[in-house]
Amino acid sequence: MGNYTLTVLPGDGIGPEIVKQAVQVLQIIGERYHHTFTFQHGLVGVAAIEAEGEAISEATLALCQQSHAILFGAVGALPTYYGQQPKVKPEQALFKLRKGLQFFANLRPVQTYAELLNASTIKPEVLDGTDLVVVRELTGGLYYGHLEPPVPGKPSEIRQTEHGLEAIDTLLYTEAEIERIIRMAFEIARGRRKKVTSVDKANVLSSSVLWRRVAERVAADYPDITFEHLLVDACAMHLIRRPTAFDVIVTENLFGDILTDEASMLAGSMGMLPSASLGTRRTEHGQFGLYEPIHGSAPDIAGQDKANPIATILSAALLLRYSLGLEKEAYAIETAVSHVIKAGYRTEDLKEEGKTLVGTQEMGQRIVDALVQLSL
Ligand code: NAD
Ligand code: IPM
Ligand code: MN
């Protein structure tokens, strides 16, 4: 029974296709639960560069600031685009949003569905029961490298020296940046199975030695939580060897990026993993947030009605939960998604013999239908 303003940023490639389905799901939630969602659309990525000369304009950023939450599709162009060394990269939209709006924590939940165990390349008995969340630090580390003060979206440059070309990216974390993300991980663990795994590369990197030291100190405030450290290379291995051993994984920006693409294979596809990016700003109903699938613009399948919209639809569920405080409605979406998977509908990324292959639009429609039919 609330009025909510949502900024919708579809972006490039499959972005508009998948976001359209998520918006339809939100619309039906609005109708069924008597909420008014006002969607304000903005340009990001290549479309924004072409129309406005930058990956996201100040006006669009202001639109985001004035809303309860942001739903983001994906940005990124074909590899040939980067070959031309564009002055502005579409990905800069992400950095401006994340750093500019101080979304320092990127939550990436990973769950397996019993019906999708066979769709993964990993053995079903290894996957069964996986339920973890990666808490990825999102506004520091290698992504915001060497420029001082850091400039969002300008993490590195290639420069000419007398010995040839060189490039530099530096990995800087302050104690305060580490502490707030570690604390968030412990708080999340309290509402889950009470285990935190902090992932670093403390055998090599000074930033990781500091990370570990701060993590130890924060852990002392949470005696009820089981706490462990893992080196990132070993974590990459354990993640597919014994995924059910994990509950909350907390790690720096690039490690979290890589580990979650890997973790998507536990769920069966990149098209299954949603994310929520949060900071300290609160709205009247929850936390201000940015919601997006973990995958990219998938130029290889764009415009073909092949993309799996579930990661984006589940991101919309996270939006309802964290930014609008609408738990019942979020759960309804998650139940509808489970139902459609149980009923055997699959997009191409999860295609399996004996299952019904559907396109992006039909998958979205099936989820909308499930919300209606199951009276969710
Ligand atoms: P990608 O995530 O776009 O695609 C990787 C592979 O997964 C591709 O084969 C793609 O077809 C498949 N895939 C991804 N999402 C899918 C979905 N919903 N349904 C079915 N299949 C799906 O990664 P990439 O190809 O390395 O990058 C493409 C572009 O996307 C790059 O420009 C990159 O910078 C950008 N990117 C953007 C974001 C974002 O906007 N948050 C995230 C990752 C990558
Ligand atoms: C992601 C993406 C982005 C990242 C890219 C497109 C900059 O891979 O959201 O995971 O590395 O953060
Ligand atoms: Mn990524």
UniProtKB/TrEMBL annotation:
GO molecular function: 3-isopropylmalate dehydrogenase activity; magnesium ion binding; NAD binding
Coiled coil: none
Any one GO CC term of the record: cytosol
Gene: leuB_1
Identification of the protein by name: 3-isopropylmalate dehydrogenase
Binding site for NAD(+): G296, S297, A298, P299, D300, I301, A302, G303, Q304, D305, K306, A307, N308
Domain Isopropylmalate dehydrogenase-like: from-to ranges: 5-367
Binding note for cofactor: Binds 1 Mg(2+) or Mn(2+) ion per subunit.
Species the sequence originates in: Tengunoibacter tsumagoiensis
Keywords associated with the record: Amino-acid biosynthesis, Branched-chain amino acid biosynthesis, Cytoplasm, Leucine biosynthesis, Magnesium, Manganese, Metal-binding, NAD, Oxidoreductase
Listed cofactors: Mg(2+); Mn(2+)
